[in-house]
Write a structure and sequence with these properties.
This protein is an alpha+beta fold. The protein is about 30% helix and about 30% strand. Among the domains are: about 120 residues, Sandwich (Peptidoglycan synthesis regulatory factor (PBP3), Domain 2), CATH 2.60.410; about 130 residues, Beta-lactamase. A hairpin with a 5-residue loop joins β1 and β2.
């Protein structure tokens, strides 16, 4: 069920002078075959180009490895100070590695830094085996978490992103899904950016080995402090980047670039577009209006956002913008005060730009049978009058 579209208070005055990133991108493009640019705080899409095209994830898979491992830390399953012993499987990894020897012990924190900074495959396997007991069990967690985040175009085969081995399924992802994973990681675990912004850091003293950041834009692009680069012959050159300037943090994903130079150029072009073309505008504070729940008692309830809502607005453009509060699909009554009951949907130029949950200020019970019947008759009569007029 949908309540009538309503433009909400001060938000309407602010929104009346904005236009959507989708409309603003008509003249803009990047050379990479697949790309996306989003606002980190809301997930608002500022630009996309074939963003659902599938690619093997390569080292971008490690974004999910970091997310799952850090969630295990937060849940108390493991600690960053835990000693982790490298298995034969981890020590035999190829590609980008920190040359873990069989039985070598490193703190979990140090292994996660090796994954975040240098994309170390052996460190990723050691982390996966320690957190979940086996890499296969860890990959199950990765795929479950991806489904929870709505990453419908993604399947992970391992913790590191190298081509699958015998008996492993093929891995696949998309630029859109990788933007979702990156946003989840830095939103819940912003401390990871303290690792990904490092260009060079010692990993061990004996034998000496340094971690070198594989993201070539770290230290070379203003505000950029992450996130993960990758390459496979089957996927081309890939890069998830995030940068912050002032109040605005952006996340870009480039996939399928021809070479390192193109992925770097496309990323810079995307981020420049976001920072130069858009400015942040606060749409609404916490209270946003009323939501009509036709089977609820009361029928109209005040609702609020979880936090103030901002939209990135193209500079100097104007479009008609509406904000609508809609009932959450499949809402079951009763609900307690503070429960999610609907969504605040912002549309710009007739196209949806943002959709965020709204929460009821009061308890909502299920209305009695005769009350619900009366409302059905009332709404039916109102629809007849509308058609007659």
């Amino acid at each position: 069920m949908r309540s009538p579209a309503r433009v909400i208070g001060i938000a309407a005055l602010l929104l009346a002078a904005v236009s959507s990133g989708v409309c603003a991108q008509a003249f803009f493009d990047v050379s990479a075959p697949s790309a996306i640019l989003i606002a980190a705080d809301t997930g608002q899409v500022l630009f996309e180009k074939d963003a659902d095209r599938p690619f093997p994830p390569a080292s971008l898979a490690k974004v999910m490895t970091l997310l799952v491992a850090l969630e295990a830390v937060n849940a108390g399953e493991v600690s960053l100070d835990d000693p982790v012993r490298a298995s034969a499987r981890a020590s035999s990894a190829t590609g980008s590695v920190v040359y873990l020897s069989l039985g070598e012990v490193q703190p979990l924190r140090q292994l996660l830094k090796a994954v975040a900074i240098a994309g170390a495959n052996d460190a990723a396997i050691a982390v996966a085996e320690y957190v979940a007991g086996s890499e296969a069990a860890f990959v199950e967690r990765m795929n479950r978490r991806a489904r929870e985040l709505g990453m419908i175009g993604t399947v992970f085969a391992n913790s590191h992103g190298l081509p699958p081995g015998p008996g492993e399924r093929e891995a696949v992802t998309t630029a859109r899904d990788m933007a979702v994973a990156a946003r989840a990681l830095i939103s819940a675990h912003p401390e990871v950016l303290e690792w990904t912004k490092v260009r060079v850091e010692p990993f061990r003293q004996s034998p000496p080995f340094n971690l070198y950041n594989t993201n070539e834009l770290v230290g070379r692009y203003e505000g950029l402090d992450g996130l993960r680069a990758g390459y496979l012959e089957a996927s081309g050159w890939l890069l998830i980047a995030t940068a912050q300037r002032g109040e605005t943090r952006l996340i870009s994903v480039v996939m399928g670039a021809r070479d390192q130079a193109e992925r770097q150029s496309a990323t810079v072009t995307l981020l420049d577009y976001g920072f130069q073309r858009f400015v942040p505008v606060t749409l609404a504070a916490e209270g946003v209006g009323e939501l009509q729940i036709r089977t609820g008692q009361p029928e109209r309830v005040p609702v609020r956002l979880g936090e103030p809502l901002r939209l990135l607005v193209p500079r100097g453009e104007t479009r008609d913008v509406t904000a609508e509060i809609v009932v959450r699909e499949g809402l079951s009554l009763p609900v307690e005060a503070g429960a999610p009951v609907g969504e605040y949907v912002v549309s710009i130029g007739g196209r949806e730009a943002l959709r965020v949950p709204v929460y009821t200020e009061h308890e909502v019970r299920r209305a009695g049978f005769f009350v619900r019947l009366w409302r059905q008759v009332r709404d039916w009569a109102a629809s007849l009058l509308d058609r007659a007029s």
